[in-house]
Automatic annotation (TrEMBL):
<comment type="similarity">
    <text>Belongs to the LysR transcriptional regulatory family.</text>
</comment>
<dbReference type="Pfam" id="PF03466">
    <property type="entry name" value="LysR_substrate"/>
</dbReference>
<dbReference type="Pfam" id="PF00126">
    <property type="entry name" value="HTH_1"/>
</dbReference>
<keyword id="KW-0804">Transcription</keyword>
<dbReference type="GO" id="GO:0006351">
    <property type="term" value="P:DNA-templated transcription"/>
</dbReference>
<feature type="domain" description="HTH lysR-type">
    <location>
        <begin position="1"/>
        <end position="56"/>
    </location>
</feature>
<protein>
    <submittedName>
        <fullName>LysR family transcriptional regulator</fullName>
    </submittedName>
</protein>
<dbReference type="InterPro" id="IPR036388">
    <property type="entry name" value="WH-like_DNA-bd_sf"/>
</dbReference>
<keyword id="KW-0238">DNA-binding</keyword>
<dbReference type="GO" id="GO:0003700">
    <property type="term" value="F:DNA-binding transcription factor activity"/>
</dbReference>
<keyword id="KW-0805">Transcription regulation</keyword>
<dbReference type="InterPro" id="IPR005119">
    <property type="entry name" value="LysR_subst-bd"/>
</dbReference>
<dbReference type="GO" id="GO:0043565">
    <property type="term" value="F:sequence-specific DNA binding"/>
</dbReference>
<dbReference type="InterPro" id="IPR000847">
    <property type="entry name" value="LysR_HTH_N"/>
</dbReference>
<dbReference type="InterPro" id="IPR036390">
    <property type="entry name" value="WH_DNA-bd_sf"/>
</dbReference>
<dbReference type="InterPro" id="IPR058163">
    <property type="entry name" value="LysR-type_TF_proteobact-type"/>
</dbReference>
Length: 300
């Protein structure tokens, strides 16, 4: 085992001298390490001729196996260091729309308040495998079955309602949702039907348009292309800035956003810090509901 790194370097460089330089060993030490492996296996790993070496077929097979094993060890050591409680990096998997419209605009404030902890953000949705994906935590909308192998901690309840440009609502739609173009997302196609059932409002759109992702449908609403179902927190910044209004109010969708971890958040100081910050951001988001954010009482 101790000789394998010397063999790998010699095979990679096709040179004992270059391997010796890389590993800070002598040429003789590399040669003895390779000879030790050859004696153990009973085959030649190199063809030696005129002070040059070439791998034999057996050498090529061993190089492939050795490279994979050494790379795996390097990755395991890096992962252990990266995901230890003392690591300066926290790897977070987050749904793309939530990341782009809510989390990313706030990460600068997190970094300023916690300069020693860097957030490595990965955009992904649906079921997550924290170990295989190399992530410490995941933020998800809990609309699917989450494995009992994980600890799931509730962050906030999702609220949603129709959102559109305020001038469009007053001057073009004349405060009538049936005159609107309804914007749909293929990733959440049932959003409008769910809201209609929850609100008890039996109304149909003047026209409809579909987008591949929820992010695009919400951006289209900001750009006055129609009316979309806007869930908090994805539209809270637009509501606060007056780019959108929610004329029919916001109502619970029955889904929660959750933090998914391998262990309780308080067991890892990095995760505990991030979780506390998320909850503080959630409280600030909820405070917008009653502070001139564009959210109105439901109109039936």
């Amino acid at each position: 085992m101790a000789a394998l790194p010397a063999f790998e370097a010699a095979a990679r460089h096709q040179s004992f001298s270059r391997a010796a330089e890389e590993l800070h060993l002598t040429h003789g030490a590399i040669s003895r390490a390779v000879a030790q492996i050859e004696d153990r296996l009973g085959v030649d790993l190199f063809v030696r001729r005129n002070r040059r070496v070439w791998l034999t077929s057996a050498g090529e097979r061993l190089l492939k196996a050795t490279t994979g094993a050494l790379d795996g060890l390097d990755q395991a050591i890096e992962d252990i260091h990266r995901h230890a409680g003392t690591s300066p990096i926290l790897t977070v998997s987050c749904e793309p729309s939530l990341a782009m419209r809510w989390l990313m605009p706030r990460l600068g404030d997190f970094r300023q308040a916690n300069p020693d902890l860097n957030i490595d953000l990965r955009l992904a949705g649906g079921p997550v495998d924290l170990l295989s994906d190399g992530c410490d935590v995941a933020i998800r909308r809990a609309d699917y079955g989450i494995s009992e192998d994980y600890v799931t901690t509730r962050l906030w309840a999702e609220l949603a309602g129709p959102v559109c440009d305020p001038d469009c609502w007053e001057n073009i739609l004349d405060r009538d949702l049936s005159k609107a173009r309804w914007l749909h997302s293929r990733t959440r196609p049932e959003a409008w039907d769910d809201w209609k059932r929850a609100s008890g409002l039996d109304v149909s759109p003047a026209s409809e348009q579909y987008f591949d992702h929820f992010f695009f449908a919400l951006q289209a609403a900001v750009n006055r292309l129609g009316t979309a179902i806007g869930p908090l927190p994805l539209v809270c910044d637009d509501l606060a800035a007056g780019r959108l209004i929610a004329p029919h109010g916001m109502a619970p969708t029955g889904c929660d956003y959750v933090l998914i971890t391998l262990d309780r958040p308080d067991r890892d100081p990095r995760i505990a810090l991030f979780f506390d910050w998320l909850m503080m951001m959630a409280q600030g988001m909820e405070s917008h509901l009653g502070s001139g954010s564009g959210v109105r009482e439901p109109e039936h």
